[in-house]
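ARCHIVE RECORD
Type: protein–small molecule complex
Small molecule: dicarbonimidic diamide
Source of inputs: curated submission
Record status: active
Notes field left blank by submitter.
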Amino acid sequence: MTLKSIKAEPYELEFDPSRSALIMIDMQRDFVEPGGFGEMLGNDVSLLRSTIEPCRRLLAAARSAGMFVVHTREGHRPDMSDCPPAKRLRGGLECGIGDKGPMGRILVRGEYGHDIIPELYPIEGEPVVDKPGKGAFFATDLDLLLRNREIQTLIVCGVTVEVCVHTTVREGNDRGYECIVPSDCVASYFPEFHRVALEMIKAQGGIFGWVSDSDSIIEAIAG
Ligand code: C5J
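STRUCTURE (tokenized, with ligand):
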């Protein structure tokens, strides 16, 4: 076991790359691409698209180092049997989850908008965890995939930082994983939420985990 160290806040994180995983949360067309569900709701997707290049570089570094990589997608079965009515009806949208949106049925598995953007597309051997909720541990086999590989540290990237990234970090933290979030590999449609979400993770001595950046993590992985 070779321990390495990442420059991070609130303090350096020691990690074993062979027991670490890169988790790419919901880098799906409907959230990130112009013309998708996120933009249809009036959001500026350029705020999310700024994560693509740092995520791509971090993904490449993790792959080169042989690190375990997992991708997630938020979405539901086509018959919507795994979507709580409360989630489907929330917001009273004219065109919401399960309805025909600009990139196919919104957040429905198998639809064009539900899939991961080409820039960060999974390669062979990288599991894709389809999750019905915000957190990647809820109603999925993610915990089993990680425990079977004796993973301890999660590098959590993706969108949106205050929703699916944060929920996943909180779930992972409660399950005993050490979670580190690169600030430039996560984003929100609301810049203030981005800032506050990261503050919340690293507050009180790292109550949910650590905050770093892609360059520091790449340096640590490659070094
Ligand atoms: C994610 C959402 N992925 N904001 N979903 O954060 O609804």
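CURATOR ANNOTATION: The pocket of dicarbonimidic diamide is lined by residues 26, 31, 74, 159-160, 163-164 (CB under 6 Å).
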